[in-house]
Each structure stands twice: as structure tokens, then as C-alpha cells.
Design goal:
single chain, alpha/beta, Rossmann fold, DNA Methylase, Chain A, domain 2, 15-stranded mixed beta sheet, four-stranded antiparallel beta sheet, 10 helices, 25 strands, 21% helix, 28% strand
């Protein structure tokens, strides 16, 4: 049996008013296709499926894998571009379709069918055979949080759900044995049975460095709850900015989940307290089906440690960097009245600095809220490099951001990710709680009175 590697939701385009299947790199690379390779296409009207595979079959016709050169990496990347009335018996122009990529060894299949979705029905896929704790990641981003869990060696990544295609490509690259859903979360209806779900919803609407609109994430809440319930996970892990937990979105999500997960614990933690040189204040929440597991879990506490300095994270002295004028930056800063009250204490930092500002998504924009490396003569500054930021965030060394990403996009993916020190510390505590209750997990009774522990340690009943 082939393994499900990728599921992508796609809207059918047209060529000369005929249904067109334009399957770009993420689909073809997940299937392991190479430019110029023969593909065999069969159309099954009874099952309403179009099957494209790289090995011979009783196909109605064959095509070759096309390609396009990446403007970023310079490499030729595979794609499929085929159109015709023959597909009109299955799909229509502007119709949403579901593309599933299956692979085993050198054989691969791409199955295309109309998207079928029911808000009240989902499919739980059989559990993956693995002795480790099975991890589902929702709104996974590029997967740095997933990597932090996996790097403990206690967890296996079995499924990631992510909207952005370039992030999904990074997920496929780093977690080759997992299944990635790439599309709107509301269209995700097949979920692997998991032990724990990690939820890192977009935070821009609630962050002081974002626009504080707080609206977009509301659209994701129902879908998030549906995916979580379908996964049948025993525990949940949430990471977000503190303001998110004061929002209508969070209250709605918690309300939808509290019957299945009656036990909640919440803690505010700053990555700087766990050894990072960068501030990164986040609120972490864990919830459980089992009261036993809830009672076994404790958030990690910061330990006393020798503080590292910025120079410990910088690239070797021989590496060439692009330096900019401090005077020019200050001239621009002073010309903006909106920045008049901004503190510059952490803006230009020397190699001896023990603290820098939080690394934001828009790090490459010139902002007093970010930290930049100051030259020895204090006349020039530069951005931290991508490798330096990865070290500051303690991203596992094996984790790679793909070479097809634009540089500015790579900075964005890092800036909107997590500090791996904190997440790994929590992941280890969660693994301990799983081990302690392995043989005594009890089903949730509908009559259980749920409760939680807030950041300040106060007990709170869930009404």
C-alpha cells in the first residue's frame, strides 16, 4: 500500500475554456517526479477520480512531466500542465478539487477528485505504527515548532496542516514520513489519529508588532476544533502571543473543546529566561482529556545559567556582510514623528550584548523595535543573518529551510516561528506525562467538572 504524502486543495483553472490541471512543484516533488518523465493518466467516471501515475497502467493517454527554472535557486523544478474536455466528466472550471499524493519507493500516484466536505463529518485515518508519541501540527508554519518536538526524540510527526504553499514545501522536506495537508483548514477532512495536537494559530492580529485587528483568526476556529476532535488526541499544546488568549477567538475555541478536554493549564514564559539572547514572551496552554495526565504535567521552570552574548551566535569573523550607515538610519528615524517615543535601547547592539529584542516576522524592515548588529566603530549596522537567527532560536541543526525560498520570506518564516528551547522543555514535560499515565488513561465522562490553572497559578472552573 502506498503512503499518503500530501493533500492539496486546488481550484481548477482553464485553457481554451477547457478544464486545466496545472499541478505545480509541491505536488510533483512530493510525488518524486522528474522533468521529462512519462506519466500515465486514467479517468474513472464511476469513482469520479483522475489518476496520474509514473508507472504503466491501462491509461487513456500519457504525458511528460514539464518543468520550470526557479528564479531563486536556478534549478529546474517539475510541474504538470494538462487540459482537455476529457477531464470535464470529473471536474469543472473554478471547481475546488482535492489532490492526493501517494508514494512508495519509486512509484507514485496523484489522485484528483472533486472536494467533498461536510462540516459535521470528518474521517479519522488509522493510527500510524510508531512507538513514539504521535504529533499532529495545526497551522504548522514552516514546522520549526514541530521540529522542536521531534528533536526531543519522544515524538513522531505524522501530520501537518498548513495554508501557505512555501511553508508546506519546507514541511515536506523536513518531515518526509509525515502527511501534509496544504490548503484552507476548513477543507481538511482527513486527519490521522494522534496522541497530541500542537496548535500555533496566526498571531499577527493579536500581536503588539502586528495590526491588532483580531478578526481573521475567527475564521479558523471552527476548522481547528473540528481537526482536533477528529484526531482524537489525548492532549493539546497551544502557543501564541498573550493577547490571543484574551480574544473572542480563544474563548470560542476553548468552549468548543472543553467537553472533550476538561483540564487546562496556562503559563506565560519568556525565551530569554530559558537561555535565549532574544526576548520572546509567549503564553503556552496545555489541555488534557485525562485528569491523571493533567495532574502529572508541570510547566518547566527556568534554571540558573551562564548568559551567552551576541558574539556566541554570530557567524565567524571571515564571513562578509552588508553593512549600512547608522547616521542614515537615525536621519530616517528622526524624520518620523510616529517613532518619536520609540526606545532605541535594543536597536543597535554590540557583540557583547546579553539581550536583544524579539525577532519579528518583518525583521528586514527598518524598525526601532528590532535589534541589529553594531560594528566595532559604531558607525555601521547590519541585519542578523538567517543562520544566526536559527542559532538564536535554537532551531535543530538538521532542520532546513528550502533553497527555493526568497531570502525575505525565509526571514518571515523564522520571525513568525517559536523559540525551540522553551518548546522542547514543554515537550519533554508532556512526554513525561504520557509515560506516567500510559496504562491508566480513562475515557472522559460527560459529567466531569473541568478546571484549569491560569498563568498566575489560580485554579479556575470551566463553566
Amino acid at each position: 500500500m502506498m503512503n499518503l504524502k500530501l493533500k492539496k486543495v486546488y481550484t481548477v483553472s482553464n485553457k481554451a475554456r477547457k478544464p486545466r490541471l496545472f499541478l505545480q512543484h509541491i505536488v510533483c516533488e512530493a510525488a518524486g517526479l522528474n522533468p521529462g518523465e512519462n506519466l500515465y493518466i486514467s479517468i474513472n467516471e464511476y469513482d469520479e477520480k483522475i489518476v496520474i501515475q509514473n508507472y504503466p497502467s491501462e491509461a487513456a493517454h500519457t504525458i511528460k512531466v514539464a518543468s520550470r527554472v526557479s528564479k531563486i535557486s536556478g534549478e529546474r523544478r517539475p510541474l504538470i500542465d494538462t487540459a482537455g474536455d476529457k477531464y470535464a466528466t470529473i471536474i469543472d472550471v473554478k471547481q475546488k478539487i482535492e489532490i492526493s499524493v501517494f508514494k512508495k519507493g519509486n512509484k507514485s500516484q496523484i489522485v484528483i477528485e472533486p472536494l467533498k466536505y461536510n462540516l459535521f463529518e470528518n474521517e479519522t485515518l488509522p493510527a500510524v505504527k510508531d512507538e513514539r508519541i504521535r504529533l499532529l501540527s495545526i497551522a504548522a508554519g514552516a514546522g520549526i515548532g514541530t521540529a522542536a518536538f521531534v528533536d526531543t526524540n519522544y515524538y513522531s510527526a505524522i501530520q501537518e496542516v498548513e495554508l501557505e504553499e512555501d511553508s508546506a514545501e519546507v514541511l515536506l522536506h523536513n518531515f518526509p514520513n509525515s502527511y501534509v495537508f496544504n490548503g484552507n483548514m476548513a477543507d481538511c477532512h482527513q486527519v490521522y489519529k494522534s496522541d497530541i495536537a500542537m496548535v500555533t494559530l496566526p498571531c499577527n492580529e493579536h500581536s503588539n508588532l502586528g495590526d491588532l485587528s483580531g478578526n481573521v483568526v475567527n475564521d479558523l476556529i471552527l476548522a481547528t476544533a473540528k481537526i482536533i476532535k477528529t484526531s482524537q488526541a489525548e492532549a493539546l499544546f497551544f502557543e501564541n502571543v498573550p493577547n490571543f488568549y484574551k480574544s473572542e477567538s480563544w474563548n470560542l475555541l476553548k468552549d468548543l473543546l472543553s467537553e472533550d478536554y476538561p483540564f487546562w493549564v496556562q503559563k506565560d514564559l519568556d525565551a530569554w529566561d530559558f537561555g535565549s539572547i532574544a526576548n520572546r514572551k509567549r503564553t503556552y496552554v496545555c489541555s488534557f482529556k485525562s485528569e491523571d495526565q493533567f495532574n502529572e504535567f508541570r510547566f518547566p521552570a527556568p534554571q540558573k545559567m551562564k548568559r551567552k552574548k551576541l558574539k556566541d551566535f554570530l557567524e565567524p569573523a571571515g564571513v562578509t556582510h552588508e553593512w549600512k550607515s547608522v547616521d542614515d538610519w537615525m536621519t530616517s528615524f528622526n524624520s518620523r514623528t510616529a517613532w518619536a517615543e520609540r526606545s532605541l535601547d535594543l536597536t543597535f547592539v554590540s557583540k557583547e550584548a546579553e539581550r536583544i529584542a524579539c525577532l519579528p516576522k518583518r525583521y528586514t524592515s527598518h524598525s526601532a523595535s528590532s535589534s541589529y548588529v553594531l560594528s566595532e566603530d559604531k558607525k555601521s549596522w547590519r541585519f542578523l543573518t538567517i543562520e544566526e537567527i536559527k542559532k538564536i532560536l535554537a532551531v535543530p541543526k538538521w532542520f532546513q529551510l528550502t533553497k527555493h525560498l526568497q531570502k525575505i520570506r525565509t526571514y518571515e518564516l523564522l520571525g513568525q516561528s517559536i523559540d525551540c528551547r522553551v518548546v522542547k522543555a514543554i515537550a519533554n514535560r508532556l512526554a513525561f506525562s504520557f509515560m506516567k499515565i500510559k496504562d491508566k488513561i480513562k475515557p472522559v465522562s460527560k459529567k466531569i467538572q473541568g478546571y484549569g490553572v491560569k498563568s498566575d497559578g489560580q485554579l479556575q472552573l470551566l463553566i
